[in-house]
Amino acid sequence: MKLSRFFKTVLAATAFSLVATAAHADNLRLRFHTFFGSEMDTAAKRMQDTLREKSDNKIRMQYFRGGELVSSDQFVEAVGRGTIDIAYGVGSYWPGQVDVGNIEAGLPGAWTSVEEAREVFKKLDPIIAEAYEEKGVVLIGRGYGSDYELLTKEPVKSLEDLKKMKIRSTGQMARLLKEFDVPTVFLPAEELYVGLSTGVIDGVLYGGPLEYEQLKLNEVAKNYTSLNLLNPGWIETIIINKKSGIR
């Protein structure tokens, strides 16, 4: 399954932003980590080629899929200490490290379109950037997701059905579910398939049909329920180490 045009656009914009720094640094070697799996490989390869070609071989990027080097919920710490240079993740994965990440990832009912979300973040991003700076990382960009609906192993026909399930959720959506006595747990994207297939969780709030098919979650969970609470359903964050040479 290929990445959507949206993800390709975000990666392309990030690549050109990095290329612009080549005039100020020589022979950069960057470790780029995402929470995605193999579905991002083609776009990542294109990003690597773009960096190498446009920077006249000054910038080379090593790419890591979700979970390959560090867990997705450890991106802020890993970028801050220099284990990786760039991370492409979601703020709700690290609320204990950057509390504003819970807001950053999405607020149920706060917007109904990408355009509205962009307007919200024009005002929020200076505050969010300061929070990341305190952890030794720099916010350099973000992406806006689409559908964010529920995928479960058993049908959900009522709130009572949902209360009997353990749902993987993050951020404010997890808080909302807890208000209705729905058990929630956090698992990074790379662990969702195993979590569902082994019964660790009964359902996930992660994305929409495209994302669930990319992760093959539809093989182990067949019931899709639209909650219509968050669209765009997640806001992605691109952060970079302050000492990486990128300005």
TrEMBL record:
<feature type="signal peptide">
    <location>
        <begin position="1"/>
        <end position="25"/>
    </location>
</feature>
<dbReference type="Pfam" id="PF03480">
    <property type="entry name" value="DctP"/>
</dbReference>
<dbReference type="InterPro" id="IPR038404">
    <property type="entry name" value="TRAP_DctP_sf"/>
</dbReference>
<dbReference type="InterPro" id="IPR018389">
    <property type="entry name" value="DctP_fam"/>
</dbReference>
<keyword id="KW-0675">Receptor</keyword>
<keyword id="KW-0732">Signal</keyword>
<protein>
    <submittedName>
        <fullName>Extracytoplasmic solute receptor protein yiaO</fullName>
    </submittedName>
</protein>
<dbReference type="GO" id="GO:0055085">
    <property type="term" value="P:transmembrane transport"/>
</dbReference>
